[in-house]
Amino acid sequence: MQILNFSDLKQVDTFRELQLTLRDRWQSVEESAYSDVDILVIPSLSIDQRELKKIEGCEHYEERLLFALIRLWNPRNRLIYVTSVPLHPSIIDYYLQLLPGIPFSHARNRLLLLSTYDSSLKPLSQKILERPRLLNRIRQALRIDKSFMICYNSTDLEAELSVKLGVPLYAAAPDLQIWGTKSGSRQIFAESGVAHPDGSERVWNHQDLAAAAADLWSRQPTLKRMVVKLNEGVSGEGNAVLDLRPIADLAPPGGSHEQRIAAISDRFVTMSFQAAQETWENFSGRIVELGAIVEAFVEGEIKRSPSVQGRITPLGDVEILSTHDQILGGPDGQIYLGCRFPADESYRLQLQELGIKIGKKLAEKGALERYGVDFITVKKENGEWDIQAIEINLRKGGTTHPFMTLKLLTNGRYDLETGLFYSQQGRPKYYIATDNLQKEHYHGLLPNDLMDIIAHHRLHFDTGTETGTVFHLMGCLSQFGKLGLTSIGDSPQEAEEIYNKVSQVLDRETLNYDDGFSSFENLTFPMSWDGDSY
């Protein structure tokens, strides 16, 4: 069976042979103070572009991998970063100034920035493949025997790019991305013996979806709500919540199975869609194209959404990198807004154990590099937490760049015994991060304006104390009034104070121009962090 959409199977074999060379190079990706490598960063969001457009400012999300520039702290490393449109020079200067002990000019000379000058709605990797001269320039700039490629997610496009350049891709092969879909995640959970909500396999039309929902209701008559998920949704934007309470009289044993199917089918149009401006007409069309699943909505008075991040090395070893408590928003708390590191002490070690089980199953399938697993936790009457896995991400998600920023800036270590991250000075570090600090009155702020505000109010990250804020998604500010940031402190309280100071300063600097509003839960995070519990 043909695995990749290449013209012949020889290219598939070439791709896999290239990946085998990572066994000798992979430690240079994350570690080794003595590495001497060329890192090609292709931050292409090679996912369904119509789903991607549901995320406001997605045009600038190629900036989320700019933390990779911090790898230039090693004086032998070189880095090539390719984007769809050129990055503002101030953004690049900002990241290079973060490098401790490295002259700015030395780091800048080892960085090559390239652009396709193409803002069209298609993945960056496709744009590069369509430009043979740009492809050749990238190839000529690389020391092929010392190079590897990293990306946001891996598809046929990234694999073809890897083959054409002769550079190994440090990511799971495209044919393994099925395990990062909603239906594939459920299969991995089942094979790993990890608890997850009851639900369905993938279906391809709304009639089968209604039947699958009715079957689920028959198995769980007390269900109040269900979640309908497009198989390849992003950040919860492809989710919808189906409320069963208005048709509760049909709950088993009331009514017939056929009546339940019909009633559910009628209620699809009234579902609570998590993406703004989403409609059943569009959503149902997407089911035909992407497939969808339905699963039980996890109810709970005290409920959280933590996650665990891991890595599968080219040697097949599974490592836990971090845990987070995710901060969700949207109509029904399905949309990813940000995260706190680390996850709550009462369950983060359990998350690690579950993450290892899932990682080992993914490794058996042949997966490589990063994976993340989202969970729902509900506090039971006895004080313990019921933990259920929700989905797997085989890509660099919203928790990747804040953690890698912390790791690369401090050169610290993650401790499995405590689930904490320690700087080289032995201090535990904490952070709050978001991609969604968004306000109407931020519109029109240019990157240079942000730099002025950062400098004047001393909001920057201090390499001496290893505390402060690191900003990202700065290209989103002017058009969308949207900004990303990671606020790092020596305690949970300090991290929150640093974050709140940033938002308050930005408010003071911009409210004179507009009365605006916040789309990020009143700016301060909705959960108060008190020690190790919320």
Topology readout:
Blueprint: H1 9-20, H2 22-25, H3 27-30, E1 38-42, H4 49-52, E2 78-83, H5 89-96, H6 104-109, E3 111-115, H7 124-129, H8 132-141, E4 147-151, H9 156-165, H10 182-192, H11 206-219, E5 225-230, E6 239-243, H12 257-267, E7 272-273, H13 280-290, E8 292-296, E9 303-312, E10 318-329, E11 335-341, H14 348-365, E12 369-379, E13 385-393, H15 400-410, E14 413-415, E15 420-422, E16 428-438, H16 447-457, E17 468-472, H17 477-480, E18 482-489, H18 492-510
Parallel strand pairs: 1-2, 1-4, 2-3
Antiparallel strand pairs: 5-6, 5-8, 6-7, 9-10, 9-12, 10-11, 11-16, 12-13, 14-15, 15-16, 16-18, 17-18
Helix pairs in contact: 1-9, 10-14, 11-12
Describe the overall structure.
The chain is α+β, with helices and mostly antiparallel strands. Helix 1 packs across helix 9, helix 10 crosses helix 14 and helix 11 packs across helix 12. It folds into three domains: 163 residues, no CATH class; 99 residues, no CATH class; 208 residues, ATP-grasp fold, B domain (D-amino Acid Aminotransferase, Chain A, domain 1), CATH 3.30.470.20. The strands form three sheets. Strands 9, 10, 11, 12, 13, 14, 15, 16, 17 and 18 form a ten-stranded antiparallel sheet that branches. Strands 3-2-1-4 form a four-stranded parallel sheet. Helix content is 33%, strand content 22%. It starts with 8 loop residues before the first helix and ends in a 24-residue tail after the last helix.
